[in-house]
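look at this fold:
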Amino acid sequence: MDLRLLRYFVAVAEERHFGRAAARLHMTQPPLSRAIRQLEADLGVVLLRRSPAGVTLTPAGATLHGEARNLLEQAEQVRGRVVAAAATLTVGTLADSAEQAGVRLAAAFRARHPDVRIRIRESDLTDPTAGLRAGLVDVALTRAPFDDAGISTRVLRADPVGVVLRADDPLAGRPRLTLGELDGRRWFRFPDGTDPVWCAYWNPAGEQRDGPVVRTAHECLQAVLWSGTIGLAPLGHPTPLGHVPSAGHASPLGHLPSADHVLPPDHLSLLDHPSGPGHPVPVGHPPAVGYPLLEGLVVVPLTGLPPSRLVVAWNSADQGPLVRSFTELAVELAAEATPS
């Protein structure tokens, strides 16, 4: 029995109207009507009673409706198991995003899909979709806001932000800062063509000014250290080295992971850095949270700016079984880690 015809029949049976069913299936009405007549001819029974007001199910149609739903559900489960048995899931990351998602996500996904190969692809700061927009990855761990047209997201955590300054900056000793107090300062810039929504968040002054152009987290930190530029960083997360510096102090810069790691099914290299109250300063730079700061840099909390949202993202038109499983696990584990 043709699963495509069964899928069409279920839509008509549930909508009780050929026009609404056709819209649901993203097709026109004439081929849908022909498909249902073909199904009735194949089975040798009348499945629907047609009228100007719509359709009703015959006893045979009601029986087929229940059986068809079960068959389609079983077919989807089989498809998911077959795909997972030989699948590779490509996960896009942006600077700290994989580390902040946590080792629990890696362990949970491995347990659910032990035969799936995971490919990690890290993007630079010019692509906040971490490869989704270009079709290079299946799912992404990144930070919002960015232009999310055609991309679905779920928020895993929202983090306040701080201003990254040189330790000898006149504002470095302040307990907190406002945007007004940063007026006239030089901000780092992303290259031309970078997502304007993303640029506007990380440069809230709304002007490019004359700061240096940066592409990576390391370049952001170096721009502050060498050029006296200012930048932003999400607050309140320990470093990969397990140390949270206190206000006005910074730890040495750690090793940044390289891009395009390919990991076997039994290994997904995501670090776990749970945050919580009591962490006085952030670590990292705008998209580089989780990396230790360079010596000579400090971070001061910034008021008046919406929090930076750590999100799991996927292509709205293509959420396959593995992507769905990954996003569900990420959201579930993030909820468990959120203090009540």
In short: The longest strand covers residues 151-159. DSSP finds nine helices and twelve strands in the chain.
